[in-house]
Amino acid sequence: MENIPADGGFITAINHNSYLDMFSYGHFQYNSGRVPRFLAKAALFKAPVVGTLLRGTGQIPVYRESTNAVGAFRAAVDAVGRGECVAFYPEGTLTRDPDQWPMTAKTGVARAALLTRAPVIPVAQWGANLAMPPYAKEKKVRFFPRKTLQVKAGPPVDLDRFYDKEPTPEVLKEVTEVIMAAITSLLEELRGEKAPEKPYDLREVRARQRREAAGEGTK
């Protein structure tokens, strides 16, 4: 955790492969002395245990596909401006990659990074998914034998070349890809293996499935 800034506002960008990894990352970040504020799906704030924790610690709910989503982004930017750490899960949901590598991501973290110019710390984690795989049913949860939960923070992502550019969709996409590449590189270190050259693209997969379904329907 030597790459976690000692002071000033910053952003962490984290891969997401288990419902448990929020706790492993939170524990890691808390031990660094810099308590994070999470951007989390609004639905989680209604969950019995997790919701109580999120509300009680001042986390930021994200209401997807609504005007409230803009409010969440502004709250995150304001928090960074006040010198806080704000944690982004750029993928927006648990990875759907069959081998649990990071997927293509949404551009919210890129927009926040360019607007605040705060350090963006990539964080990779592995191990929570071995106890509770993404979207696992109860029978697939395996707490024993005990799993080792690994979390690794890298140096700030170099985004200097983007700061003077207009934040067009193309620029935001490129910034997002640079951030996700840094996370993936850290995850390669933790796993001791290489990631696929092309990240899993959920939208691309769903579009192909729709095309295939439409083709079957016309036969």
Q: What do these coordinates show?
A:
Residues 197-219 are annotated as: Disordered. One of its GO terms (molecular function) is 1-acylglycerol-3-phosphate O-acyltransferase activity. InterPro entries: Plipid/glycerol_acylTrfase. It is an enzyme of class 2 (transferase). Residues 10-128 form the Phospholipid/glycerol acyltransferase domain. By secondary structure, the protein is of the alpha/beta class. The chain has a single domain (10-217), classed as Glycerol-3-phosphate (1)-acyltransferase. Helix content is 38%, strand content 13%. It has a six-stranded mixed sheet, sandwiched between helices. Helix 3 (68-81) packs parallel to helix 4 (108-116) and helix 4 (108-116) crosses helix 6 (169-191). The longest helix is centred in the last third of the chain and has 23 residues, at 169-191. The chain starts with 9 loop residues before the first strand and ends with a helix. The model has no long low-confidence stretch (mean pLDDT 90).
CATH class: Alpha Beta
Strand order of the largest sheet: 3-2-4-1-5-6
**CATH fold group:** Glycerol-3-phosphate (1)-acyltransferase
What's the overall geometry? globular
Number of structural units classed as domains = 1
